[in-house]
Design a protein that fits this description.
Layout lengths: L1 H30 L7 H29 L9 H17 L2 H16 L1
Length: 112
Amino acid sequence: MMEGKTMYMVVLIVSVGILSWLIRALPFLLFGRGCEPPKVVSYVGRVLSPAAIAMLSVYCFAGYACARPPAENLWGLAEIASGVLTVALQWRWKCPPLSIAAGTVLYMTLVR
């Protein structure tokens, strides 16, 4: 009985490893090293990250604002200030660890 489970796990791990490798190799197999990707792929690569971050930010701020009354959280000043700091640092220096750490430290300082 244990041998069947072991074989299942080995097949599962090997297949997941092969699929992961194929997914990561697919862009190189499709476009090669010298070819440029199609314009639509370049466009999506350029706009998808900022769009996802904007969507998550709006979702988080709206969800948080709806969950707590304005008087309780000082109209969201801690969240807004830390969000503005994070965006400003990211825009200026383009260093995500610095932006995230500074925004988190400011937020934790303001809410404590």
